[in-house]
Design brief:
By secondary structure, this protein is mainly α. It has helices at 3-24, 32-39, 45-80, 92-105, 110-133, 140-164, 170-177, 188-201, 205-211, 215-220, 225-247, 253-265, 269-293, 302-320.
Length: 322
């Protein structure tokens, strides 16, 4: 069996185990026998309501959001040849959040909210990369500094929106900004976006492997560098927007997951990209399970858990990059 298939099957098995655990654990525990009965269309009414109406949609939304963010982070890191690149750190999540919040304040529908989130993420992408490039070339320090400044600017705009927004909406908006899956809508759109993204980026793995060595070498070896770069920009923005509209601004998933996978399995993007979808989804499912159960019956925003994991990892990577 090829190594790529073995690794993906292992990660898929871990993902399934994490989702089973997340569905079974909670204020009311569902035994494995009861869970199996529910999946077969039987079981107790309480278990059916818990699993099918509450926990399973939330678990699927968490998996889709984590996978989208991890794939977006992996794309950004290979494109910029910088392990610190991440949709949250570089301001893409902030731009998407501002776009989505603006649509919410205007009372627009779900489609308009998703489109506004994508526009905000794309605008943030253009701003970060345009300002970081300037008249010279990208450097990790310049890119990181530009991303932090743009993210801070989006944070200020978000705060302004919260100040002028209706008082009754502010608590929900704050939880959504911290990353909250309690009110996640139907997960199927995010899951579809994740499946399409995984199917589209896997064929690009070989070209991305070449691009990781530098644009000059990639052009020498026949890669259309500029179209590939812009395709990755747009793809990362779309994935970030889909994740933000599903669960709010969940940070650091796109930073942690690709880096850990590269430490374990190397830098072949044909493996890293689909593995990021599985591992990112698993990480967010486990983080959301912790958020639901750590201080039960109260629930923490899942963004708090990912930040507690991501901040030390970010500082460690920053220390290593010296």
């Amino acid at each position: 069996m090829p190594r790529l298939l073995r690794v993906l099957l292992l990660l898929a098995g871990i993902a399934v185990a994490a989702m089973v655990l997340a569905v079974a654990v909670g204020s009311v525990r569902v035994p494995l026998a009861g869970l199996w009965a529910v999946l077969l269309g039987e079981g107790e009414p309480l278990h059916r309501a818990l699993v099918l109406e509450l926990r399973l949609p939330r678990v699927l939304a968490a998996f889709a959001t984590g996978g989208l963010l991890a794939v977006a982070g992996a794309l950004m890191q290979v494109l910029l040849r910088n392990p610190l690149a991440d949709p949250y750190v570089l301001g893409l999540s902030g731009g998407a959040a501002v776009g989505a919040l603006g649509a919410m304040l205007m009372g627009l529908g779900a489609a308009a909210i998703s489109g506004s989130a994508f526009a905000g993420a794309l605008l943030s992408t253009v701003m970060v990369f345009g300002l970081a490039h300037g008249t010279g070339s990208w450097t990790p320090t310049r890119l990181l500094l530009t991303g932090v400044v743009v993210a801070a600017g989006w944070g200020a705009v978000t705060t302004f929106m919260l100040v002028i927004g209706p008082t009754e909406r502010i608590p929900g908006m704050l939880y959504w900004l911290m990353g909250d899956l309690a009110y996640a809508r139907s997960p199927w759109l995010a899951l579809l976006a994740l499946a399409i993204a995984a199917a589209m980026v896997v064929p690009l793995g070989r070209s991305l492997n070449v691009l990781a060595r530098g644009p000059l070498q990639a052009a020498t070896l026949g890669v259309a560098v500029r179209p590939l770069e812009w395709s990755v920009y747009v793809a990362a923005s779309l994935l970030t927007a889909a994740a933000v509209t599903t669960a709010g601004t969940v940070g650091f998933v796109g930073l942690i997951v690709p880096h850990m996978l590269r430490l374990l399995f190397g830098s072949d993007q044909r493996l890293i990209l689909p593995a990021s979808a599985l591992a990112g989804g698993t990480l967010l499912v486990l983080a959301d399970t912790l958020a639901r159960t750590l201080v039960a019956p109260e629930q923490l925003p899942v963004g708090v858990i990912t930040a507690l994991l991501g901040v030390p990892t970010f500082l460690f990577l920053l220390y290593r990059s010296r």
